[in-house]
Amino acid sequence: MAKKLIILIFLISTVGIISADIYISGFNQAEFIHRTAKDSLKNYFENELGLVVDYNKLSFGITFNAYLPKFNDDAPLQDLRSSDISYEWEERYLTYSGENIGLKVGTLSESFGTGMTFRAYEDEDVNHDNRLEGAMTSFHYNKFKSKAIYGVTPSPSNISRDDSFAGLEFSISDDYMTFGGSALQIREMVTNTDYSDRQVFSSNLNLFFDFMDIYGEYAYSELETTELIYGHGIYANSNIYFGDFTLSGYYKKFENFNYDLNDLPTLNHADDLLDDYINVGEDEEGAMGEITWDNSFAKVFTSYAEAWSSDYNYRLSNGYFETSKSLGDNLLTLSYEHFERKNKSGESWEKEVTPTVSIDIPLENSLSLYLKGHYAMINEIHQGNEKNLVEPLFQTDFMYSNYALSIVTEAQMEDISSISDADFWLGATLSAAVVDNTSINLFVGKQKGGKLCQNGTCKYVKPFEGVKFEITTKF
To answer: Please, what is the average pLDDT of the chain?
Structure first.
């Protein structure tokens, strides 16, 4: 495989030299990790190479990863070997972009509408990757747009087998309205020998006015397994503008609408789930409101969200307030967040309250200073067992020209009076653009870890202690 890659790079470079119409760009990113945890290997290395070749209306791209070995927080120590070399094609595609028609084959990151019915994407931070390997065609003429996709993705039930997807989307628009619809067929692995078939149909409407906009989407699904299961999905939002104010409202309702190839909105500022142990979209309803005030005096943003299951066994509430004020050349920001979640049948309740203050201070010439501090107060009850924690954090960033240094100190304790028994994490990150096309990133110290949520996907990140060094070159 490595020889094939070298030959491919050589051929692309040769063609680029003899043809002025070909444009080649890309990047190479190398990362070295030294970890001091007892249940882990000490050293890890990864190299990622990406190339894009553009020729007239054609574009060819590849991304190739090599590991020695691959860093995995969850892998048991007995399954890891320092000499384990692995590699993979992260991405490979060929596209044609015509005046009205587009074609793409290879790795597909695509979505229909807001992603409520279909979204294939990668998010390395939460180890999410449901991108398709397949083909897509798109067509647009005047106010009409459409695209059709067919592809496969590894099944979450068995990564050695594939789920398949076929879908069609269209939209018609004018100056004040956009109307669209989609239909898709998903074949998902249920057991090692059995598959289920899911059909999803949706429509959406977007209205635009000078003082407001309105968006609504409805989807209906049929899942054929040993029985026929019907599902529904509703999402709507609206924004009203007057003067310095913007009022926003959101609503969602999902029933039996959970599958791997959609991306449902969480509708809360914390971007957290209704519960960690139920499928997203299986049974949930929620609403969120936001108010933004932005003028020359200050900027204020506030939001409040609630979500619940149909039997109210699961409940979630999240409030957030933030205000920013310029003090001369300095920018002061104050925020307060309240997050609460309850599971009646599981006898579980959790609350987290976090006030935060930060200030951005430009100093002389290209030097600036950023200071941030927050004080998280956490209360949890799980089956009668109560836990109370406080987690203060202080961050100091120095920025000068092409260099940045960030120092983060975190602590965890039962209360502030028990600070002598607290656990501490101290880490420093140095970032620099050493030459025009090359940057480095160096981390030394400890990272607390914890729960990380993005785009409706959550992951518990283990604590880290050691060194991470990354160098990226673009060309």
So the answer is: 89
Q: What is the average pLDDT across 360-369? A: 89
CA 337 and chain centroid, separation:
21
Owner of token pair 């680029």: 16
Q: What end-to-end distance do the CA atoms of the chain give, in Å?
A: 23
Residue 41, by phi and psi: left (phi above 0), alpha (psi -120 to 50) or beta? beta
* Length reported for the chain: 475
Spatial separation of the C-alpha atoms in residues 237 and 288, rounded to whole Å: 9
How would you class 43 by CB atoms within 10 Å of its CB: exposed for 0-12, middle for 13-18, buried for 19 or more?
A: middle
Residue type at 4 in one-letter notation: K
pLDDT at 9 over 90: no
Q: Per-residue pLDDT averaged across 265-274, rounded?
A: 94
> What is the residue extent of each domain of the chain?
1-80, 98-265
Residue 20 predicted with pLDDT over 80: no
Listed in sequence order, the DSSP H helices in 365-429 are none
Handedness of CA 395, 398, 399, 405 (dihedral sign): negative
Its sign, for the CA torsion 281, 181, 168, 58, is negative
- Output the six-digit token pair for 93: 């595609």
Amino acid present at 293: W
Query: How many Cα atoms are found within 13 Å in the side-chain-facing hemisphere of 87?
Result: 12
- The structure tokens listed for 25 are 């760009």
Q: Does domain 98-265 have CATH number 2.40.160.10?
A: yes
Residue 465's alpha-carbon distances to 35, 99, 393, in angstroms, are: 6, 52, 17
Cα atoms in the Cβ-side hemisphere of radius 13 Å centred on 231? 26
CB count, 10 Å around CB of 338? 17
Residue 298 near residue 275 (C-beta atoms within 8 A): no
